[in-house]
Amino acid sequence: MSNYEDPTLKKDPESHLPPQATEPSAPPPPADVETGFGVSAITRRWRREDFLKRGSLALRGVALVFSLLAFIIMASNKHGDWKDFDKYEEYRYVLAIAILSTLYTGGQVLRHVHELSTGKQMIPRRTSAIVDFVGDQILAYLLISAASSAVPLTNGMRENNDNIFTDSSSTAIAMEFLAFLTLGLSALIAGYKLSIQSHTI
């Protein structure tokens, strides 16, 4: 019996295995993908910080104007007899907080203008964020406290005598309320800046 085997009948032992699927290679990352440490990310951060600085400056500038108006209006609200603001504790409180707010916002505006014009920090960045956040909150609270304390007195006076004294008092109170709103918004920005400083440390 011949041992001859037809070579065409021989089967490769691996020929019955299914072809192996080749894993597709991962596509290269797009060229415009921006990482958190890229140049564009740093540029965006600088723009955001510049926007926050200018926003804080604008809000404190508006608060300075409102506080100064409240101070001037209340300080000049003297018309003789019972129509003198210094005869009422609530109005003296309004005047005192208006002066304090004017000094605070004026100092903050000068500091921000100096930093934006020179590009140099007068105090360390984190300390500046804490001072802005705490100072804005304290002054905002004092402003709304002074305005709220004088509202009942003014409303009671206007029920019997609606004159230039009560009108001036109402205007000064309104200016302090507007100063409170702007400093409240400034405190929100200061809080955001403080949280950014905490995360970057």
From TrEMBL:
TM region(s), chain numbering: 57-76, 91-110, 130-151, 171-192
Membrane topology: Multi-pass membrane protein
UniProt-annotated stretches for the region Disordered: 1-34
UniProtKB keywords: Cell membrane, Membrane, Transmembrane, Transmembrane helix
Gene Ontology CC annotations of this record: plasma membrane
UniProt KW Membrane keyword: yes
Source organism superkingdom: Eukaryota
Intracellular or extracellular location(s): Cell membrane
Location of the Casparian strip membrane protein domain: 52-181
Short name of one Pfam family: CASP_dom
PANTHER family: CASP-LIKE PROTEIN 4A4 (PTHR33573), CASP-LIKE PROTEIN 4B1 (PTHR33573:SF57)
Subunit structure: Homodimer and heterodimers.
Family: Belongs to the Casparian strip membrane proteins (CASP) family.
Record's protein name: CASP-like protein
Protein source organism: Cephalotus follicularis
